[in-house]
Write a structure and sequence with these properties.
The complex is a heterodimer of chains A (260) and B (417). With 260 residues, chain A is of the alpha/beta class. Chain A contains ten helices and ten strands. Chain A has a single domain, classed as Rossmann fold. In chain A, the strands form two sheets. In chain A, strands 6-7-8-3-9-10 form a six-stranded mixed β-sheet, with helices on both faces. Chain A has a four-stranded antiparallel β-sheet with strand order 2-1-4-5. In chain A, helix 6 runs parallel beside helix 7. Chain A is globular and about 55 Å long. In chain B, helix 11 crosses helix 12 and helix 15 packs antiparallel against helix 16. Chain B is globular, with a radius of gyration of 24 Å. Chain B has 417 residues and is mainly α. Chain B is built from 16 helices and four strands. Classes of the chains: A alpha/beta (260), B mainly alpha (417). At the A-B interface, helix 3, helix 4 and helix 6 of A face helix 8, helix 9 and helix 10 of B.
């Protein structure tokens, strides 16, 4: 067995890889050389104090902002600075911290919009959307998965906050991507809503790679296989929840001050 | 989804088709027929415009460009047919106009759809201005001030149809109008049509579900160009002349008004708008020279009080209708209508008196009465009617509001809201 094949085998197991990624807005450096490998099927949480650059990191990975320097790879393929829709088609989907859905469409239509591309319908104006069996079936599955069968004909804009967050996750996974980025999925939720959201996330990301930004430490330690701590645009530690709990630098920089 | 779904739709379109066929029997006479023809053209044009505005969220101020270019191309092709240079039946001329509009939609849309919102509106205005200026510069194609004249009978007689009589032209327009309506409705039911709505509502999110908003807008623009060009071709056949005005800013503005007055949020809205505005333009203008003022005012009132247009008034009352609560609203509506009519009468009287310059002894015809525009009595009466009308109308509106407040709990409890 040569070194090259071992290398390739290892590479195949890496879903998402960031290599010395930098981002500055003007002279302000927000992301300051982040390198991170996330394994296939891993549930990875990115934590850090406000303004650490967590959302910016997501925006770079998902193509919303261009990077200043560095390289981002999805399953070994370079996706640095591609357009968001191109990255999405390659199998990376994200949710937003501030709910970002189609408010004037029903729950069902929201989800259906997200399944169309991956089923190959693209910009078709020769298919009748109501007659697409596969799209209907996948949409039904997702709507059921996020527990919104009763609400399927409701306009997304009139749903409750927690429902909108669930729909946001539904739209995110409906694209069929196997790398899922969730940006603060439980922000602004009550305790019971958070518990439900965690169960939902666990359910819908089964068998997929999950990367999430999260403030709720309960959620983080409950869900994540590994955790990265981002402080001032740098990853100061990456490891299992136990390793992160025991990490002195992390306690000083972050956990000690936030956890009560 | 189910075969029943197809059947109801088929029945619906058949009823529309039969309605079109019957129309000339109800409204015979040259004036009615030419107005119906204009309505058919306006319906296609307004619907094609709403593919941009209502469905994709693109406020275009230059949609007449595609209508006009389709019209000019058709005029040339008809003339070539007349000169025996090519062969193409007049019946299928709308395809010539359509493909022309589509081609320009493709080319110009590539530039305009890179941006949405206000930049798109401004670029569309710029392009409209540019094309309108070109129309006066490139006289070979556009014919300069005189435009391009054509003869719709150039194709000769085929199956007894020469397109000489207006009735034949009406049926041609009606047929293509039906094709256009079905076609444009069908587009709303496709993946592209749905993603156009998605891009309208949230272009950013559309990107993150794999769609390129620019591409969606561009394709919608191209399709809208096709239907606009089709309407343009029918206008050429109908009027037998195309001038630079056809693609000018006034024409572009007109279709914006039609779409808004009818309602952009609903597929049928622009149809209502096209019919209503065309009717106003031909009918109202025969009654009063001040019709443009009334037209402008109507537009203002609709934008202010029913931003969803006339179609929205229907949507608004649907829940009450289904809950069988309309009878609770009607008395207050009758009151509002009566007082509103009073207010309107006063207003129209004031405007018409002003329009007559008010010289002493000027006799003005008002609602069938001959009144002296110079006499103070007339003025006091008109202004008084207007003021009393306003007061009473506002009082009546209170009842309308109260009626709505009363039925709202019932609407909510019956679950239709």
């Amino acid at each position: 067995m040569s070194a090259a094949t071992t290398n390739a085998a290892e590479k195949a197991l890496v879903s998402l890889s960031l290599k010395d990624v930098h981002k500055s807005f003007g002279r302000t450096e927000i992301i300051n050389g982040v390198s991170l490998d996330i394994a296939d099927g891993e549930r990875h949480a990115v934590i850090g104090p406000n303004g650490a650059g967590k959302s910016t990191l997501f925006n770079l990975v998902s193509g919303r902002f261009p990077v200043s320097s560095g390289r981002i790879e999805l399953r070994g393929e370079d996706i640095t600075n591609l357009e968001p829709h191109v990255i999405n088609r390659k199998g990376l989907s994200r949710s937003f911290q501030i709910t970002n859905i189609f408010p004037r469409m029903t729950v069902y239509e929201n989800v259906r919009c997200a399944v169309l591309w991956s089923l190959g319908y693209k910009y078709s104006f020769w298919h009748r959307v109501g007659g697409l069996r596969d799209a209907a079936q996948r949409t039904e599955e997702i709507v059921e998965l996020i527990g919104m069968q009763e609400r399927r004909e409701r306009l997304a804009g009139v749903l409750t906050y927690a429902e909108q967050r669930a729909l946001e996750i539904g739209v995110t996974i409906a694209t069929g991507a196997d790398v899922i980025l969730l940006d603060e999925p439980t922000a602004g939720m009550s305790h019971s809503e958070t518990d439900e959201a965690v169960e939902l996330i666990r359910k819908v990301t089964a068998g997929k790679t999950l990367i999430m930004v999260e403030h709720d430490m309960g959620v983080v330690f409950n869900l994540a296989d590994r955790i990265s701590v981002l402080v001032y645009g740098e990853v100061i530690a990456t490891g299992t929840p136990a390793q992160i709990r025991g990490n002195k630098a992390v306690q000083e920089a972050y956990l000690g001050t936030e956890q009560d | 989804m189910t075969p029943v779904f197809h059947k109801t739709r088929l029945i619906f379109w058949s009823v529309v088709a039969i309605f079109f066929v019957m129309l000339p029997f109800g409204f015979s006479g040259g004036f009615a027929l030419s107005m119906l023809s204009q309505m058919g053209i306006a319906i296609i044009f307004a619907l094609s415009y709403n593919m941009l505005l209502g469905q994709t969220g693109l406020l275009s101020f230059g949609h007449a460009v595609y209508f006009g270019l389709g019209a000019f191309m058709t005029a040339h092709v008809i003339n070539w047919v007349g000169e025996d240079r090519i062969w193409w039946p007049i019946t299928f001329m709308p395809l010539v106009g359509g493909l022309t509009g589509m081609l320009f939609g493709l080319v110009l849309g590539f530039v305009t759809t890179r941006r949405a919102g206000t930049p798109f509106a401004m670029i569309s205005l710029g392009i409209a201005e540019m094309v309108a200026a070109s129309a006066l510069m490139f006289t070979t194609f556009f014919g300069g001030e005189g435009g391009i004249a054509t003869d719709r009978t150039a194709g000769g007689t085929m199956f007894g149809i020469s397109y000489g009589p207006q009735i034949q032209v009406f049926y041609l327009i009606a047929g293509w109008c039906l094709v256009g309506m079905i076609g444009m409705f069908a587009v709303t039911q496709t993946p592209l049509g749905r993603m156009a709505n998605a891009v309208r509502d949230n272009p950013e999110r559309a990107k993150f579900v794999g769609y390129n908003p620019t591409r969606v807008r561009w394709l919608m623009m191209t399709l809208a160009g096709f239907f606009a060009g089709m309407a343009g071709a029918l206008a050429t056949i109908n009027y037998e002349i195309v001038t630079a005005e056809t693609l000018g800013l006034v024409a572009s503005g007109n279709v914006v008004l039609m779409a808004f007055i009818g309602g952009i949020g609903h597929f049928w809205g622009p149809i209502v708008g096209a019919v209503f505005v065309t009717w106003l333009q031909s009918a109202l203008s025969t009654y009063t020279q001040a019709w443009l003022l009334y037209f402008g005012l109507l537009f203002l009132i609709i934008i202010l009080f029913s931003p969803g247009g006339m179609a929205n008034l229907v949507t608004l009352h649907k829940p009450a209708w289904h809950a069988r609560l309309m009878k609770r609203l009607l008395p207050s509506y009758a009151l509002a209508a009566a007082t509103g009519a009073l207010m309107l009468t006063g207003f129209v009287a004031v405007i018409e008196l002003l329009y007559s310059h008010g010289g002493s002894g000027d006799m003005v015809s008002l609602f069938g009465l001959r009144v002296d525009a110079g006499s103070a009595v007339t003025w006091v009466a008109a202004v008084g009617l207007f003021v009393v009308g306003i007061v009473l109308f506002r009082w009546a509106l209170k009842y309308v509001r109260r009626a709505w407040e009363e039925i709202t709990p019932q609407l909510q409890s019956s679950g239709v809201v």
